[in-house]
Amino acid sequence: MAEDRLACRECHYVNDPDAQTCELCGSSSLTEDWAGYVIITSPEESQIAEEMNVSKPGSYALKVR
């Protein structure tokens, strides 16, 4: 389930619940305190990806605290 996962405070990538570091950027700043997410499949064609500065496909949290 997405709500059990950890979001990276740096890049907003949604990681597995047992992650120690972000799978995408390597940051150890992960949090359970996030809301909403978007799945980006084609970042090069996505306006949302452009606004979020996302260049790799994946699930990203919309709001990270």
UniProtKB/TrEMBL annotation:
Domain Spt4/RpoE2 zinc finger as annotated: residue spans: 5-65
GO MF annotation list: nucleotidyltransferase activity; translation elongation factor activity; zinc ion binding
SUPFAM superfamilies: RNA polymerase subunits
UniProt superkingdom: Archaea
Binding site for Zn(2+): 8, 11, 22, 25
Family: Belongs to the archaeal Spt4 family.
Name of the featured protein: Transcription elongation factor Spt4
Native source organism of the sequence: Halorubrum glutamatedens
